[in-house]
Amino acid sequence: MAVSKKEGFKTEDVWLADIAKSLSHPARIRILKILTEMNVCMCGDLVDLLPLSQSTVSQHLKELKRVGLIQGDIEGPKVCYCINIKALQKAKKELDKLFNQVCAC
Amino acid sequence: MAVSKKEGFKTEDVWLADIAKSLSHPARIRILKILTEMNVCMCGDLVDLLPLSQSTVSQHLKELKRVGLIQGDIEGPKVCYCINIKALQKAKKELDKLFNQVCAC
DNA sequence: ATAATCTATCGTATATTTACGATGAACGAT
DNA sequence: ATCGTTCATCGTAAATATACGATAGATTAT
User: Fold this and answer.
1) Residue A101 with chain B: CB contacts under 8 Å
2) What pLDDT is attached to residue A102?
3) What are phi and psi of A29, to 5 degrees?
4) Could you tell me which residues come within 8 angstroms of residue A13 by beta carbon, excluding any fewer than 6 positions away?
5) How much is the pLDDT for B104?
6) Secondary structure class of A86 (helix, strand, coil)
7) A17–B25: do the CB atoms touch at under 8 Å?
8) I want to staple B9 with a disulfide (CB 3.0 to 4.6 A). Which of A14, A26, A62, B57 is the partner?
């Protein structure tokens, strides 16, 4: 089975792994960086900036939306994407918690 | 194709995505936490602490070794795993760079 | 030497991920 | 009303990820 056995793990660890999964593709890293730089961005602009087809970019956006790191607001025929600051801050906090145990040596 | 198209992306983004991928499973998050708490840990101990078979745990350890976040030293018949502090610090630094652009608002 | 222990790897099955083109739904413009 | 634009979703193909048991290799103990 390729299904992660989530039964035996803390929800905290499952959540953090899920966030990490959403960051586990260069396109999604790039999308987050673009959105942080531009604050907001139309989906079409992202398609132009990435070496991927429109449908593939849409899939990556869906993955980032799934974990709540970004949100998309419909503006007429276009969709305006932006960072969900609160979610990103929580992700940063949890990752710091993981890393700082080590770096406090 | 399921292969990530890495041609069109910055090596920096590819690297960070790869680190994130190595963190994208609850078992590997747990392993890192255990190793940071215990400093060092035998592979067998990790198997006891995780709800997974020995071979599966070994696979997860291999993934963390692949990206350099941990290292394993053979001690007789056992293998002693520990965190690679430098790699983890670099990962933290790069992730902060991604997150801080947002949080500096 | 033999047995027991520990861990990595192999083989395998299944689920998920990634990618693309094609299609569909929603909206604005003509 | 029709057309063009924008984006999500569907269908599909191929690679990867996850999990396990079985096996192999190395080391220690007997």
Assistant:
1) 33, 36-37
2) 59
3) -60, -45
4) B26, B29, B30, B33
5) 47
6) helix
7) yes
8) A26
